[in-house]
Design goal:
Distance between the termini: 39 Å
Shape: globular
CATH architecture: 2-Layer Sandwich
Bound molecules: adenosine monophosphate
CATH class: Alpha Beta
CATH topology: HIT family, subunit A
Number of helices: 3
Largest sheet: 5 strands, antiparallel
Length: about 120
């Protein structure tokens, strides 16, 4: 059994803390970001806590990464016009604060030139 403290996303998956869940399968869950940065801002999160970054996920389970991307597309169609920006912050210096891999799905009237720096 892991002795690491579960991430906040593992606690959401375990229903230990609430979230506005919009999609769930055996392998992924999606919920609204608590501090939205776009009209639609969802997080797509693999249920496994085995991968902290998208690079690890790509190397370890590419089919699961593909499911994350397909889920993002489906949610962008359901919650916006189908267009979306997919962001994987990777590392603290890139803004990652939760080290349980997750995709930010940003949609709903994004304009060009708004990538933060
Ligand atoms: P990152 O900075 O890429 O690691 O993204 C973590 C994201 O998780 C941030 O956008 C937070 O706003 C979001 N977040 C943190 N806690 C929660 C929560 N309890 N429910 C929903 N989103 C959360």
């Amino acid at each position: 059994m892991s002795t690491e403290t579960p991430s906040i996303f593992s606690r959401i998956i375990a229903r230990e803390i609430p979230a506005d869940i919009v999609h769930e399968t055996d392998r992924v869950i999606a919920f609204r970001d608590i501090a939205p940065k776009a009209p639609v801002h969802l997080l797509v999160v693999p249920k496994t806590a085995a991968y902290s970054s998208v690079a690890e996920l790509a190397a370890g389970d590419p089919a699961l990464l593909a499911e994350v991307v397909a889920t993002a597309q489906q949610l962008a169609r359901e919650h916006a016009d189908g267009d979306f920006r997919l962001v994987f912050n990777t590392g603290a210096n890139a803004g990652q604060t939760v080290f349980h891999v997750h995709a930010h799905v940003l949609a709903g009237g994004l304009t060009e030139g708004t990538l933060a720096h």
